[in-house]
Design a protein that fits this description.
By secondary structure, the protein is an all-alpha fold. The protein has helices at about 5-15, 20-25, 30-50, 55-75, 85-105.
Length: about 120
């Protein structure tokens, strides 16, 4: 895993400035660019973790929390959703798919699967 990708995830999981999680929690805002940056970093870590016997705890905790907390947080009726509902549904499904891939070590999608942009 590259240091750049790990730095993105560490920043996201710690809800640092300009992170998706910070905007979601404090501003009640879905930052689309930050989500894309997060999702791409998650994908890269998943691809590079295939076959790993051990996973760093901070990564495991981050994947777990994302796959549960984002859906719970954004499900609140007061959370603004300016995008079409299908966008949020697809994003939440993507987080679940990536968590499954990370924890199981294999993806439900073919190896050459071209993950569509969200």
């Amino acid at each position: 895993m590259t240091d750049d990708v790990l730095a993105v995830l560490r920043s996201e999981f710690d809800a640092e400035d300009e992170s998706f999680l910070l905007a979601m929690r404090t501003d009640l805002s879905w930052n689309r660019a930050a989500f894309t940056r997060l999702e791409q970093a998650l994908r890269e870590v998943c691809a590079e973790s295939v076959g790993a016997e051990e996973l760093p705890r901070w990564l495991a905790e981050g994947f777990y929390e994302l796959s549960h907390d984002v859906a719970n947080w954004t499900a609140h009726p007061n959370f603004p959703r300016p995008e079409p509902e299908s966008y949020y549904t697809d994003c939440l499904e993507r987080l679940q798919d990536l968590a499954d891939w990370f924890f199981r070590g294999w993806s439900a999608y073919p190896e050459d699967y071209n993950w569509p942009d969200l």
